[in-house]
Design brief:
The protein starts with a helix and ends in a 12-residue tail after the last strand. The strands form 5 sheets. It has an 8-stranded mixed β-sheet with strand order 6-5-7-1-8-11-4-12, with helices on both faces. The protein has a two-stranded antiparallel ribbon with strand order 2-3. Strands 9-10 form a two-stranded antiparallel sheet. Helices cover 34% and strands 13% of the residues. The radius of gyration is 22 Å and the shape is globular. The protein has 455 residues and is α/β, with parallel strands linked by helices. The chain is built from 14 helices and 16 strands. 46% of the residues are buried.
């Protein structure tokens, strides 16, 4: 074997057994990176907040406006100046306009998959879905792991908190035959890496995370004795448990016990510890409170939090009809408010440099407006996204589109590139592979690192 093959084999076998000795694994990854002519991040991000704008925001009505295009393309909104001279965004992003010096806007995201489910998989995992261009194929064990599942494998927490938290639901589209989008769980890594789901309306005053509170008549001590009883009973059903994946079940049960008994964990998920002014600044709505919760979890050491745009009963960012009223009244204001508050809050708390924030959908919208209902159809060939913090070069626009924002004019970026750059910024070895449950190797990334976006 060549020296390079030996290095790759060492990286594969080590990571296939778990993260373990971080420094030795990183040494292998660094050596491979040097041989590939790649640079490593000068300062790795400790966490990522991934804001998934489920449905597909219109690039023309958000961050890549074309005011000189014909009326049937440019739409109803006007561009406004921002903190960065020469950079213009939609007039309804009033909060972001004042802090564009903190973020990088990507205007050349592109792929060719117009289906919500399979392109959602690519967005959340950085890998192509098992079945391409399909809204009929739900999650399966063949899916690639969510970015959070990869982080759980490669950078597990040791403080009782989960490594991967998603909220407030699993992205689901009622018009898609497959329903739930694939790529939102552990995939071929297994269910042990599915992450924790915080579901429900976090803005509801009665909301609390399911499973982290006990009935009033059961204290920690009584719970522990009940667990001992369950262990005794479980021993009698060992064969059945083995066939159902007992190891994974036991891991989840042990982790649940650890979380329930931890004051630090309960504190991390307690939004009532935030002031009314802070909660109002993020927005007293589902999305705003999810983003605030994400900031709390970062502070408590959770490395990856995924916030899916919530079920608003109106097809989310999938604006096939009434595009402009939906964006102006329902979608842009809470998104702008929450993201602006998050970036400012992270900076004020000294966390922005070590937290990468991503804001992106699975695709964009067709440039030509549908005349009969003022909507825009699916368009994966060109769309926009945002990266900020965590080693991302601030105050820049990366890539450009043609005169109708229909196709990239320069520096095309795939969802795989977007995800690979996030993992690289977090200091994870993007050139290596992990073993699935049947000990088959899988590369953890298939894109390139956008080094121009990194400081």
């Amino acid at each position: 074997m060549s020296r390079r093959q030996v290095l790759q084999a060492g990286s594969l076998s080590a990571l296939g057994l778990g993260w373990g000795d971080l420094q030795s694994r990183l040494a292998v990854a660094q050596e491979l990176a040097r041989e590939n002519g790649q640079s490593l991040p000068k300062k790795r991000a400790k966490a990522c907040i991934f804001l998934f704008m489920w449905g597909g925001p219109s690039q023309l009505d958000t961050f890549d406006m074309k005011p000189d295009a014909a009326t049937e393309v440019r739409g109803n909104f006007n561009p406004i100046s921002t903190k960065v001279p020469g950079t213009h965004i939609c007039e309804h992003f009033t909060g972001l306009a004042s802090i564009t010096d903190k973020l990088a806007i990507i205007r050349s995201l592109t792929h060719d998959d117009p289906a919500h489910l399979s392109s959602g998989h690519a967005t959340l995992t950085g890998q192509l879905a098992p079945v391409l261009k399909s809204d009929a194929d739900p999650p399966s064990a063949k899916d690639s792991p969510h970015l959070g599942a990869l982080v759980s494998k490669l950078r597990p927490t040791t403080n009782g908190l989960p490594s991967f938290v998603a909220m407030p639901w699993k992205a689901f589209h009622p018009a898609a035959p497959g329903g739930e989008a694939p790529g939102q769980h552990g995939g071929w890594l297994g269910s042990a890496y599915d992450g924790m789901l915080l579901d429900g309306d976090l803005n509801d005053p009665n909301w609390h995370p399911q499973g982290l509170s006990l009935p009033a008549d059961i204290g920690i001590g009584r719970l522990e004795s009940r667990v001992e009883l369950l262990k005794t009973l479980d021993a009698q059903r060992a064969a059945l448990h083995r066939s159902l994946g007992a190891a994974s079940y036991g891991n989840h049960q042990s982790r649940a016990m650890e979380m329930i008994g931890s004051g630090n964990v309960r504190s991390a998920f307690d939004l009532t510890q935030e002031s009314d002014a802070t909660r109002e600044r993020y927005g007293r709505n589902v999305h705003g409170q999810c983003v605030l919760m994400a900031r709390r979890l970062v502070e408590h050491g959770v490395p990856l939090i995924s916030v899916n745009w919530h079920n608003d009963g109106k097809n989310f960012w999938d604006t096939h009809g009434d595009n402009f009223n939906r964006l102006k009244n329902d979608l842009i204001p809470p998104a702008d408010r929450a993201l602006s508050a998050l970036l400012t809050d992270l900076e004020d708390r000294g966390l922005l440099d070590e937290t990468i924030v991503a804001w992106v959908g699975e695709f964009g919208r067709k440039p030509q407006i549908t005349a009969n209902n003022a909507g825009r159809e699916h368009w994966p060939f060109c769309y926009s996204g945002i990266l900020a913090g965590g080693g991302i070069r601030p105050g820049m626009v990366y890539g450009s589109s043609d005169k109708h924002a229909a196709y990239p004019a320069s520096d095309p970026v795939t969802p795989q590139d977007f995800a690979t750059t996030i993992l690289h910024a977090m200091g994870l070895p993007t050139q290596t592979a992990l073993l699935d449950r049947e000990e088959r190797p899988h590369r953890i990334t298939s894109g390139r690192v956008l080094h121009e976006l990194l400081v």
